[in-house]
Design brief:
There is one protein chain. This protein has 371 residues and is an alpha+beta fold. It has 3 domains: 2-105, DNA Polymerase III, Chain A, domain 2 (Roll), CATH 3.10.150.10; 118-250, DNA Polymerase III, Chain A, domain 2, CATH 3.10.150; 256-364, DNA Polymerase III, Chain A, domain 2, CATH 3.10.150. It contains 8 helices and 25 strands. It has a 9-stranded antiparallel beta sheet with strand order 13-10-11-12-25-24-23-17-21. An 8-stranded antiparallel beta sheet has the order 5-2-3-4-16-15-14-9. Strand 23 (340-345) and strand 24 form a beta hairpin. Helix 3 (122-133) packs across helix 4. The longest helix is centred in the last third of the chain and has 17 residues, at 266-282. The protein starts with a strand and ends in a 7-residue tail after the last strand. The relative contact order is 0.11.
Length: 371
């Protein structure tokens, strides 16, 4: 088997997120090269990449090979040979030998019969999934909250939440059938990585360079036996979907509009929140928002400290009010946003809604504080 060092390096970089650092099975520290393809998996997701210059079958120890080829010129030809339990890699001025594992011990790609499949506009879908994954739970006590819920149908609905925050976005593109799936958060991050790194392949009619750049990239989605297979160009990603029933997201969002609606500049609110955040962190983490018709006071306090910053509002409907929100959640939401944000507040302990342009609707549970 022969391959250019640069080609092998580029392909290994693509599968890096899915090769586990501490694998549950020792064989997973390897990548499989077989029949002109490279395979890598963490048992939750598997990536299959074309590697047409390769033939035969072998397992490469991912970490060792990545470290090695950093220092070999990219235009060198790398020869790979598996023989008598040893794997030998040689190039123009050197060689290395590793213990070789049997390729048959690597998890194989399952044969799946499509239950539902279709093509989707990938740019908006990946943007929405990437935005939602930050709201997934990281604790495994409720597995359904560690993934992004996707409702497929006439409209694609995307939900994610950790019990304290949630995000929702609807994409006006239909799928070929109806289904509700939960994609693991790690798999969403993997898809986003590949989407940004892989060469763009678009079905664009001949035109200007601008037409080619702005053309939308498609992806193919197939569902079968609790798995999703996503095809991005010539790269395939197999994902074991999370089984179970997610929360009733619409019961959390609510159908009635918020009686209090505030509009203000995101950058000005972010500056105010960051000024008071250190004090909030020294206390219970709460940032207090108190507003009248024209001004919002952003504050935080502890037994020995108190800070308050006034921020002008663009508009306010529903009269004066107050609410306390976790400062870390608020800071994370506001960062890097420009332009107008809308804040919706309902009475009692209902979540506070935040909306910014075309980004997802975000709800954050309020905190109970002494006013």
């Amino acid at each position: 088997m022969q391959i250019k060092v640069a080609r092998l390096r580029e392909t290994l970089e693509m599968v890096k997120p899915v090769v586990p650092r501490k694998p549950t099975l020792p064989v997973l520290k390897n990548v499989l090269i077989q029949n002109g393809q490279m395979f890598a998996t963490d048992l939750e997701s598997m990536v299959v990449l074309n590697l047409p210059t390769s033939d035969g079958a072998c397992l490469l120890p991912f970490s060792d090979v990545m470290k090695l080829i950093q220092y070999i010129p990219g235009n060198d030809d790398l020869s790979i040979e598996r023989k008598r339990g040893k794997l030998t890699m040689s190039w123009s001025d050197g060689s290395v030998t590793y213990d070789a594992e049997d390729p048959k011990t690597f998890p194989q790609v399952p044969e799946l019969k499509p239950e539902l499949q279709g093509t989707l506009e990938g740019d908006s879908l990946m943007e929405a999934l990437s935005a939602a994954v930050t709201y997934c739970a990281t604790e495994e006590s409720r597995p359904v909250l560690t993934g992004v819920a996707v409702n497929l149908g006439d409209v694609i609905e995307i939900f994610a939440g950790d019990g304290f925050r949630m995000a929702y976005q609807a994409l006006p593109q239909p799928f070929s059938g109806e289904s509700k799936i939960i994609i693991p958060g790690k798999s969403v991050s993997l898809l986003a990585f590949l989407w940004n790194k892989l060469p763009r392949e678009v079905d664009a009619a001949p035109g200007t360079l601008i037409d080619l750049i702005t053309a939308k990239q498609k992806l193919d989605l197939m569902l079968s036996e609790g798995k999703a297979v996503i095809q991005i160009g010539r790269t395939k990603v197999l994902i074991n979907l999370i089984q179970g029933s997610p929360p009733d997201w619409w019961a959390i969002i609510g159908k009635d509009p918020a009686p209090i609606k505030i509009e203000m500049l995101a950058s000005e609110m972010e500056r105010a929140v960051r000024r008071v955040q250190p004090v909030a962190s020294n206390g219970n983490g709460a940032i207090r928002l108190v507003w009248d018709e024209n001004t919002m006071n952003v504050s935080a306090k502890t037994e020995s400290q108190e800070i308050k910053v006034a921020v002008g509002m663009l508009s306010a409907e529903g009269g004066p009010g107050k609410v306390a929100i976790n400062g870390t959640y608020l800071t994370q939401y506001l960062q890097l946003k420009q332009g107008v944000i809308t804040i919706g507040v309902k009475p009692d302990s209902a979540p506070v809604a935040f909306k910014h342009r075309s980004s997802p609707l975000v709800l954050i549970m309020p905190m109970k504080v002494e006013w």
